Amino acid sequence: MHTVLIVDDDAMIVRGLEQFVDWGELGFNIVGTARDGEEGMEAIRKLQPEVVLTDIQMPYKDGLAMIEDCLRDGLSPHFVVLTGFNEFEYARRALKSRVSDYLLKPVEEQELIAVMGGIRTQIERTAKTKEDWNVLQSAVSESFSFVREKLVRELATGEISPSSIEDERLVYYNIRLADERYQVALLQGEAQLLGDDKLQEFMTSALEKRGIRLHLARGDAIGTMLLGGERDMERDVTEGLADISGKVKEWLGLTLTFGVSESGVLTELKELYRQAELALQHKMFRGGGSVIAYGTIPEESGEYSPVPQEHARRLLAAVSENDEAGVLSELDDFFGEIRRSGSLPSHDVYRTCSELLYEVRKALSEMGLAVDKLVGEDVSSSDKMRRHDTLEGLCDWLATILQRVRAHFDRSFEHTGGEQLDNIILYMRTHYADNIDLDVISKKFFIDPSYFCKVFKKKTGETYLHYLTQIRIDKACQLLSNPSSKVYEIASLVGYEDQRYFSQVFRKHTGMTPSDYQKSKTKN
């Protein structure tokens, strides 16, 4: 609804105008009335009506004086002058004072409807034009920002050479390349935060106070920062970015992480960008909210050889014993080994975690259990894993998965007698190298040996001893695939102290001696 103010000293005329037509049907709403030009002026300031119906001859201040005062003060509603026949020429001259129209008293219904309809059209046309203009201005502004930021990004990455850009173009896009030294920083954070103009203003101001010039190219998840300053700028940059990260965390509860290059000259931007990329990748070890300088990251040593199979076995052993603290302790050990490497590339970290999960999934699937179903998500999805880009985040994610698996074993009782057969089977699969005869199982899980054997065969279709032996032989086959493994060592690793007895059992199950099996698997 458009708004209307009526200004007239005759109460009968005001009441008549209010009731004369269906204002709502015309698209208007009467928001107030005034008795003279003075009151009318105050009402216009307060109510900001779009249309003012005003008489000319009124006490204290007449209608035309009120209109002139409004125009002088920058108030410009659509004025419609109400005038008698003897004031007609006077009213016509008022049209030159930006009065939209006039109505002769007594006002005819159709004339009022026609005048208000014309004014409504003007209002809506003006609003549409203003909206179109705002859209155009916004598009131009966005286009300017887009092109400028694209230019900054291409400069920082070395895709284009600074010398190939005309000076006029740099001036137009407000890009100054006259600093003595430069650094490139990559900024990672929430996409919504990176796109906020206020963040850019805050960072620009904070760095300018330290004598650092910022050119920023924003992205969905990573922003590119081209920083210019004096020769000794690296400390100021690091401290400035740390201050920005801390303030954003304090004020908004959001995390910003920076990877920062060393300083160099304008022609070295491509190398500086590479350094910033490598520094940001080290977020895996430093954690979110860090300012990671390229000069502080260690060189890749290549000496770390992760053994996820053994960690998986120990994790599942803790799960089988319902040992929550043991699960967390083993995960701490696993990630502690990765952390101590200090330089493992992030893709190798993800690969190592994938191998750990593979071993867990494999062991449980051999028991007929689907990990994805147990935990309620596809744990093999690399996309889900890569959502966690720090060691702490990966550790928490794996802990959640394993705790859900542990919860299943905590709940999974055999209905007959209440024995935890899934727990016992998992215990067998993770303690096959130990002496786990029936007496050990009986004491460990508080179950009568003869009754356990009966329930176990009913569930698995095999005797306890045959099932355990098959686990040990399967593991031995895996180990024998390594040509450097010794048969006597493997025998001990899978629970056989006597190598000769191990060879007999192995041949009975596979039709080959351990040595022949190893040769068949490693001859190529």
UniProtKB/TrEMBL annotation:
Residues 3-120 form the Response regulatory domain. Residues 422-520 form the HTH araC/xylS-type domain. It comes from the Bacteria. InterPro entries: CdaR_GGDEF, CheY-like_superfamily, Homeodomain-like_sf, HptR, HTH_AraC, HTH_AraC-typ_CS, Sig_transdc_resp-reg_receiver, Tscrpt_reg_AraC-type_HTH. GO terms for molecular function: DNA-binding transcription factor activity; sequence-specific DNA binding. Keywords: Cytoplasm, DNA-binding, Phosphoprotein, Transcription, Transcription regulation, Two-component regulatory system. It is found in: Cytoplasm. GO terms for cellular component: cytoplasm. The modification 4-aspartylphosphate is found at D55. This is Two-component system response regulator YesN. It comes from Cohnella phaseoli.
